[in-house]
Amino acid sequence: MKVLITGGAGFIGLHLARQLAGSGHEVVALDSLSDQVHADPAASVARFPGHVVQGDITDEAAWALLERPDAVVHLAAETGTGQSMYEVERYRHVNVVGTRFAGQAAHSWGVPLVAVSSRAVYGNGPTSCREHGDHFGAPCCDAAVPTASKEDDPHCPVSVYGETKSEGEGMLVEPAQHIPVTIIRPQNVVGPGQALHNPYTGVLAAFLARLREGKSLVVYGDGSATRDFIHVEDLATLIAWSVANPPGVGAPLILNSGTGVRTTLDELAEAAIAGSPRADVEIEHVPVLRAGDIEHACADLTRLASVGAPTPRWTSHDAIADFIRASWDTPGATSAAWDDALDELARRGLVQGNHG
Ligand SMILES: NC(=O)c1ccc[n+]([C@@H]2O[C@H](COP(=O)([O-])OP(=O)(O)OC[C@H]3O[C@@H](n4cnc5c(N)ncnc54)[C@H](O)[C@@H]3O)[C@@H](O)[C@H]2O)c1
Ligand SMILES: [Zn+2]
């Protein structure tokens, strides 16, 4: 079948497109080839295993020019959590209006839609303690322990990015009454092909840059915060499965994507070092808290397993090491780019603590 992938030329889109093309499907990308993501747009187009239509998802005319596919996968988005705190209008426009148009297009074609949202809709992961029970948003008390996010948990986003992802999901409720809609909420996605020169996303690309320069890895906070890192291949497999297994119409089927296992930021740094040839690099902690940052995140995979969707094959540790190994010789920004992005946040009053 023919699958239209918005944001198909990006990190997750390319892995998905290769999987789909590898199993005999035709893939078409609708992608603006944004210069924050694509250092060499022509190379991004050449890598994509199908036709790339350069266009903006917020431009109705771009949608009108597309031929009817058999399914739509919606990935295109603005993805920088920190950047979203000051580029508010741009984030809202692309992530909410763009998602509305994706839903409308799939509805008008009468084809299934798989939309990729984010675990950012949960904000801080839930916590639980004997006295207060389950708690969403900030931890209830010092005795609270983090628990995994379930798909029916309330949305408590703490960044504009998270808010726009939550509002974007809301845009799909109406189309889901007419067409099958799956919404996937990935945790932190890692793997080969991740943007290495976009300092507005992912701590891991910053670690790669610092490792290559032989600099210590800078962890914000005391290193005990946790995340759930999912390998991009496992996410691509889940999206491809969702394309092949559309849910019934009525309401969106929402699925978490993660490993279900927590990794501390210190373990993340250790896994990055382990995947590199630089065993001598040290881990440094700095008391920095950026607006929009969260303490704990982890996916509950109960629903994923119950609908028969594929569960991840990579552990977070191996996924992190795989990213470092695969990216070691790929050109990317120097660590100064991440320092500049942090300075930019600090200038705007979005950083607490001393980052020197
Ligand atoms: N990477 C992660 O850790 C992660 C985690 C959770 C959710 N997600 C979500 O997955 C999706 C894909 O993320 P990714 O990591 O591949 O990001 P990416 O930046 O590599 O890819 C996004 C693609 O969308 C394109 N794009 C951006 N704005 C556009 C617009 N207005 N019109 C058309 N195309 C546009 C970009 O050019 C890029 O090719 C996003 O919706 C993101 O929010 C990613
Ligand atoms: Zn409590």
Commentary on this structure:
By secondary structure, the protein is an alpha/beta fold. It has a single domain (2-350), classed as 3-Layer(aba) Sandwich (Rossmann fold). The chain contains twelve helices and 18 strands. The chain has helices spanning 11-22, 41-47, 60-64, 81-84, 88-109, 160-170, 203-212, 232-244, 265-274, 302-306, 316-327, 336-347; strands spanning 2-6, 26-31, 51-54, 71-74, 113-116, 127-129, 133-135, 145-146, 181-186, 188-190, 217-220, 226-227, 229-231, 253-257, 263-264, 283-286, 288-290, 351-353. The strands form six sheets. It has a seven-stranded parallel sheet, with helices on both faces. Strands 7-6-8 form a three-stranded antiparallel sheet, with no helix packed on it. The longest helix is centred in the N-terminal third of the chain and has 22 residues, at 88-109. It starts with a strand and ends with a strand. The mean pLDDT is 94. Zinc ion (ZN) is lined by residues 129, 131-132, 140-141, 143-144. Nicotinamide-adenine-dinucleotide is lined by residues 6-7, 9-13, 31-34, 37-38, 56-58, 75-79, 94, 98, 116, 118, 186, 188-189, 195.
